[in-house]
Amino acid sequence: MNAASDALHAKAQPETATALLSVSDLHVSFRQSAELIPAVSGVSFHIDKGETFALVGESGSGKSVTALSVLRLLPHNGRITGGRVNLGSTDLFGLPEYAMSAIRGLRIGIIFQDPMSSLNPVMTVGRQIGEALRLQRGLQGKASRTRALELLDHVGLPNPQRHLDEYPHQLSGGMRQRVMIAIALAGEPDLLIADEPTTALDVTIQAQILELLERLKRESGMALWLITHDLGIVAELADRVAVMRAGKIVEQSGSERFFEKPEHPYSRELFTAMPRLDACLNRPETQGSEPLLVVEDFKIHYPIKQGIFQRTVDYVRAVDGVSFSVAQGETLALVGESGCGKTTLGKGILNLIENSGGRVRFDGSDITELDGEERRKRYAEMQIVFQDPYSSMNPRMVVGDIIEEGLRALHPAMTETERRERVEDLLQGVGLPKEARLRYPHEFSGGQRQRICIARALAVDPKLIVCDEPTSALDVSVQAQILRLLRDLRDRRHLSYLFITHDLAVVAELADRVAVMHRGKIVEMGVTRQVLFEPAHPYTRRLLQAVPKLRLSKASASPR
Amino acid sequence: MLKLLWTDILFFILLAGFVVLIVRARGREHLRRPWRKVARSRSAVVSLVILLAYLFIAVLDSIHFHPRNQGENGKSQYQAEVISVLDSWMTPIRTRVEKTYSAPFSSYAYAKEMIRQPDGSQLWDYPRLQYGSAHLADPEHEKTADILATGMKGLGEGGLIWLLSASLVIVWRSRHDRIGLAESLKRIALGRTEIPWRAVLLTLFLILGCSGMLGELGLRYHVLGTDKVGEDVFYQSLKSVRTGLLIGTLTTFATLPLALGLGILAGYFRGWVDDVIQYLYTTLNSIPGVLLIAAAMLIMQVYMARHEDEFASLALRADFRLLFLCLILGMTSWTGLCRLLRAETLKLREMEYVQAARALGVRQGVILMRHILPNVFHLVLISVALDFSSLVLAEAVLSYVNIGVDPTMESWGNMINGARLEMARDPVVWWSLAAAFLFMFNLVLAANLFADAVRDAFDPRRAE
Amino acid sequence: MIRYIIRRVLYAVPLLLGVNILTFLLFFVVNTPDDMARMHLGQKHVTQEAVEGWKHERGYDLPLFWNEKAEGADKATRTIFYQKSVGLFLFRFGRSDSGREIGADIQQRMWPSLAIAVPSLLMGLLVHISLALLLVFFRLTYLELWGIALCVVLMSVSFLFYIIGGQYLIGKLLQLTPISGYDGGINAARFLILPLIISVIAGVGSGVRWYRTLFLEEVEKDYVRTARAKGLSEPRVLFGHVLKNAMIPILTGVVVVLPLLFTGSLITESFFAIPGLGSYTIDAISQQDFAIVRAMVFLGSALYILGLLLTDLSYTLVDPRVRLG
Question: pTM of this prediction?
Answer without folding.
Answer: 0.86
